[in-house]
Automatic annotation (TrEMBL):
Residues 1-27 form the signal peptide. Pfam families: SBP_bac_8 (PF13416). InterPro entries: Bact_solute-bd_prot1 (IPR050490), SBP (IPR006059). This is ABC transporter substrate-binding protein. It comes from the Bacteria. It is found in: Periplasm. Belongs to the bacterial solute-binding protein 1 family. It comes from Sneathiella sedimenti. Keywords: Signal. Its main location: periplasm.
Length: 429
């Protein structure tokens, strides 16, 4: 895939310093992989921030490389690491932490960030985000491109349906009640606007966790070696998801595409949608109507998974590269830079200090919906993350698909998924 980022400085070996000898014009060269998974200004903002850091640290050359999707990024990083040429730094899904540890390609930040100031920095992030960033008393990932799913709704559609445009559905029951009022049909009985859209393609397990968590259940333990796919609360959550289409008829049947969901919302094809807070700036820019943002509806309690990417440092790097990588990560997650990133993209600023900057205070005063995801962290659970994470997640996604498309009932699909996950994870217990 074509690199969207230019090299910020001349790379190592590009300048002859003596006859027959080539070496870097800089003290340290870093290669940095970065994925973009949502709309908005993520790529442009990363380039701008990396340029700014380079201007302030002229002895560090950062080659920032857009590496495609999250899946593309972890695949490329692992392939490069196995070939002995990994990036020194990468943003990768937080849930891939156990896989990266199992592959022995990353190091904990604690190995490099050893000063009192460093330790205070490691302890400065929201605990909800650190649940997918730490294991065994070590910090392997630093939260950066982090999110939770939230409910977006069309206030004009709410008014048209006789609903209070300032009041989103707070419970599962209310989402069904509102959805029925929001569905629109043409003269032939064909649906022209659905009540709600919960994507089920790509990574359906993530949004589904908003239902499981609201029903009081996580999908895996903190050690990454046990799943709870067939727990009664998880089965009930899947039955509810399926019922939105089959029984209540407020959501389109079958698999709903993740990438097409914001466009469907903008075009009035759905009155409500579940998607990442990382789409917040995209929605603010492109929705042709007044919209609201709310926490996910509750069953037993509020609940939502965290999501998104962390910074990881790769093991096969020099000590100087590791120190430079930590310094860059500290800089880009500092309050002022973090505020710029959050405002540009809609991702949740991962440190409380960021929300106290004048820049963020002005932003949230002008745009209060930006506070919803932050406030939802109080109820957040860690995203599904296990050893052999891609295999286990695919098993669970396939079970969700089987139930959503009517190939299996929720209970049978999830019990089968649990058996398959157990067969993989038993070796890690």
């Amino acid at each position: 895939m074509k690199t969207l980022f230019r090299s910020l400085c001349v790379t190592a070996g590009a300048l002859a310093l003596s006859v027959g000898t080539l070496s870097s014009a800089y003290a340290v060269d870093l290669q940095f992989y970065f994925p973009v998974a949502v709309g908005g200004k993520a790529a442009e903002t990363i380039q701008s921030l990396t340029d700014e850091y380079s201007a302030q640290n002229k002895d560090v050359n950062i080659d920032a490389i857009f590496s495609g999707s999250y899946q593309d990024t972890v695949t490329k990083a692992l392939t490069a690491a196995r070939g002995g040429k990994p990036p020194q730094l990468s943003v990768i899904l937080a849930v891939d932490m156990f896989t990266l540890i199992d592959e022995d390609v990353i190091i904990p930040f604690d190995d490099v960030a050893t000063t009192d100031e460093d330790k205070a920095w490691l302890n400065s992030f929201y605990p909800a985000f650190m649940k997918n960033s730490q294991t065994g008393g070590k910090t392997y990932g630093i939260p950066f491109q982090r999110s939770t799913p939230v409910l977006y709704y069309n206030k004009e559609a709410f008014k048209e349906a006789g609903l209070d445009p300032e009041k989103a559905p707070a419970t599962w029951e209310e989402m069904v009640e509102y959805g029925k009022k929001l569905v629109k049909k043409d003269a032939n009985g064909n649906v022209t606007r659905w009540g709600v859209r919960i994507p089920s393609s790509g990574f359906p397990y993530w949004l589904f966790q908003g239902l499981a968590a609201a029903n009081g259940k996580r999908l895996a333990n903190e050690d990454g070696n046990m799943t709870y796919f067939d727990d009664p609360a998880v089965i009930e959550a899947l039955e509810y998801l399926v019922s939105l289409s089959t029984e209540h008829k407020i959501m389109a049947p079958g698999i709903i595409e993740w990438g097409a969901t914001p466009k469907a919302f903008f075009e009035g094809q759905t009155a409500m949608m579940w998607t990442s807070t990382g789409n917040l700036t995209n929605v603010r820019t492109n929705a042709p109507f007044d919209f609201g943002v709310a926490m996910l509806p509750a069953k037993i309690s509020r609940g939502a998974p965290t999501g998104g990417g962390n910074f990881f440092i790769f093991k096969d790097s020099s000590d100087e590269q590791k120190r430079a990588a930590v310094d860059f990560v500290k800089w880009i997650t500092a309050p002022e830079q973090s505020a710029e990133w959050t405002i540009a993209t809609g991702y949740v600023a991962p440190r409380p200090e960021t929300w106290e900057t004048e820049k963020m205070k002005a932003y949230t005063a002008d745009f209060p919906p930006a506070l919803v995801a932050r406030d939802q962290l109080e109820y957040a659970v860690p995203e599904l993350s296990t050893y052999q994470n891609q295999r286990v997640t695919k098993i669970f996604n396939d079970a969700l698909s089987a139930a959503i498309t009517g190939q299996q009932d929720a209970s049978s699909a999830l019990k089968e998924a649990q058996e398959k996950a157990d067969a993989i994870l038993k070796d890690y217990r």
